[in-house]
Write a structure and sequence with these properties.
Layout lengths: L1 E7 L11 E8 L2 H14 L3 E4 L5 E3 L4 E8 L4 E4 L2 E5 L4 H10 L2 E2 L14 H4 L2 E2 L2 E2 L4 E8 L4 E6 L11 H4 L4 E9 L1 E2 L10 H7 L9 H14 L22 E3 H15 L8 E2 L4 E3 L2 H7 L11 E3 L7 E3 L5 H19 L8 E3 L4
Parallel strand pairs: 2-5, 3-5, 4-20
Antiparallel strand pairs: 1-2, 6-7, 7-13, 8-14, 9-10, 11-12, 11-13, 15-17, 16-17, 18-19
Length: 351
């Protein structure tokens, strides 16, 4: 294991923000991951697990403890069953499944981060979520001090949530197993309306796998959601806020606020989210509350390509970013009575 002290963490995050860790350990095998976790737990040392760093907001003071960077590798394909080591680069893994002619995660192309992070957040985009293809997650259980295998049901997946996110101090993901589909080189049925329009097909249709992946990459790039070191719109964590899910009563009150603010004919985005619940769009809320693309005057601003991404324009601090996030949250709450929830994990700071 590689070990550094007073190690900068900002370069390990897509925001490029945050202070140093007292100690940074890079593990390249499952055994090294487990050893590092056990050592931290045995000594009572705070532990921060880092994968691709695409979902982290680290405070300017850094992290007083051990930061464990998981850099394990492993891509194993057996028929339609895929097993990924937690440290595998997600975008590369998606590309390899498309090359192998297997469907199920092609619309998750371009999402930054590591494979091990995908079940934690139940990563999803353009009509696909990893929960629909994950069969098992192999993790180290810090409570029982053993490696365990959790089934899909045991992962308790929901929208951008899971058992791992609900109890972040318990599990460290080591490997993830997926069941993909062999569909003669075609994608899974296209579910997302924007994707279907871009492809020129109807929802439910299938298209060549490579075409689906390339189309999603173009859509994401147009929103600044594909990492590019020269494009500050991608110095972000992607979507900073989750889409609110409202009860029928909450949605009714929200609908009334929308019409009061925008006019009698105004209709907010509304998507079914289970019985008695409706999901609306965080990006729409932010825009209609007055925070348009490019909003801000400091080194942290809203992306010029997508209102849902908060970005580091270069030279920003974490506090700059949080100040902008708090302004957006307060503005949306005042305009529509909805409190946005941040999607990235915060370390040493809070909104």
């Amino acid at each position: 294991m590689l070990e550094l002290h007073d190690a900068p963490l900002a370069p390990l995050t897509t925001f490029r923000l945050g202070g140093p860790a007292t100690r940074l350990v890079t593990a390249t095998t499952d055994a090294e991951v487990i050893d590092a976790v056990r050592e931290a737990d045995a000594t009572g040392t705070p532990l921060l697990v880092i994968g691709g760093g695409s979902n982290l907001v680290i405070g300017d003071k850094g992290f007083d403890g051990t930061a464990l960077r998981i850099a394990t590798t492993g891509f194993e394909l057996r028929g339609t069953t895929l097993e990924l080591a937690a440290g595998e680069v997600w975008t590369d893994a998606v590309a390899r499944t498309v090359e192998a002619g297997l469907a199920g995660i092609e619309c998750l192309a371009g999402i930054p981060g590591s494979a091990g992070a995908t079940p934690i957040q139940n990563v999803g985009a353009y009509g696909q979520e990893v929960s629909s293809t994950i069969t098992e997650v192999i993790a180290y259980d810090r409570r029982s001090h053993e490696t365990v295998t959790l089934t899909n049901d045991e992962c308790a997946f929901s929208y951008r949530h899971s058992r791992f996110k609900a109890d972040p101090a318990r599990y460290v993901v080591l490997r993830v197993r997926f069941a993909l589909e062999a569909a003669d080189g075609l994608s899974a049925p296209v579910k997302y309306a924007e994707t279907a329009r871009a492809l020129g097909v109807d929802p439910g249709d299938r298209v060549p796998l490579a075409t689906a992946r390339e189309t999603v990459l173009k859509l994401r790039a147009g929103k600044g959601m594909v990492l590019d070191p020269d494009d500050h719109d991608t110095w972000s964590a992607g979507s900073f806020f989750t889409n609110p899910i409202l009860t029928d009563a909450q949605f009714g009150a929200f609908h009334a606020r929308v019409r009061q603010r925008l006019g009698d004919g105004a209709e907010p985005p509304a998507y079914p989210a289970g019985e008695g619940h409706t999901k609306t769009s965080a990006a729409w809320l932010i825009d209609k509350a007055g925070f348009t693309k490019g909003y801000g005057t400091g080194p942290a601003r809203i992306s010029t390509k997508h209102t849902l991404a908060l970005t580091n324009r270069g030279g920003a601090t974490t506090e700059d970013l949080l100040s902008l996030a708090r302004e957006v949250v307060a503005g949306v709450r005042e305009a529509f009575g909805i409190t946005l929830v941040n999607e990235p994990v915060t370390v040493g700071v809070a909104l």
